[in-house]
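Holo model, fe (iii) ion. Inputs:
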Amino acid sequence: MPVTRSFRGPIDLHTHSSVSDGTETPAELVRAAAQSGLGTVALTDHDATAGWDDAAAAARTAGITLIPGMEFSTRVDYSSVHLLAYLFDPTDAAIVTEMARIRAARLTRAEQMVQQIGLDYALTWDDVLAQTTPDSTVGRPHIADALVARGHARTRSDAFAGILHWKAGYYQQHYAPDPLRAVQLVRAAGGVPVIAHPATRGVADLMPEARLAELAAAGLFGLELGHRENRPEATARLAVLAEKYGLVVTGSSDYHGTGKPNLLGENTTAPEVLERIIDAATGSAPIYG
Ligand code: AMP
Ligand code: FE
Ligand code: FE
Ligand code: ZN
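Output:
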């Protein structure tokens, strides 16, 4: 039998810091999570683990449990699928190599987008760099912040709805592995993979039963069905499949600080589910602060 642990408060397994596109440093984010009354928080920056150490130190001081994680960019055809990866070994060579490849591709893609946008709007690459920290995973949110700073959009969300929307014509893809390979990499590194927001408009159609069955067979562990962007019909369909394939169901905020309206703890995960995630992981350990 697995050890029964007690978690002191609500559990939120999906948040972003300034290491990717959140607005708080990892330490600030962990302190905000403790202050908001959460008992456990996972740090899941896009394609990066650079925040783990600072988040762990802050968790020990703030007295909150930290689950180190990452939101792994993957792709099916022309659409991105995000895979939450918990408690893997951050020094695993295959994962490190893949993360570096994705981050490099993101950088090139962001530069190309900015070059194209710069033909029509006053915007430079330096404007975007001013919105990042040295080890941030650069993405459209940083371009959005630069557009806001230049007065071309009112908020980050406005930039996403306008200039950064694929319909505006500046959108570009970046390299990302397919979800099956990402699941295999995370498992091989001792981690636990959960598909992020699988019932959103863009992702739900990419998750027919056959693909889920294949991912489950490769070691997919769960589906994040509690997420504000999931759509009710797709969530209901995926809940049935989660049951059928023995996948756990998580719920999380996808907090980005002031970068998105999502609030810490707005969706949470059951303690029994977190126990199963911890018991399945061999790559790294939670920080019980
Ligand atoms: P990218 O991966 O560079 O294409 O950018 C996608 C990221 O932008 C995701 O991680 C989202 O969290 C973020 N994002 C998407 N839509 C919005 C929005 N409307 N407002 C703020 N952030 C967004
Ligand atoms: Fe994000
Ligand atoms: Fe995501
Ligand atoms: Zn996210």
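The pocket of adenosine monophosphate (ligand 1) is lined by residues 21, 46, 139-141, 156-157, 160, 256, 259-260 (CB under 6 Å). The two ends are 24 Å apart (CA to CA).
Archived with the compound record.
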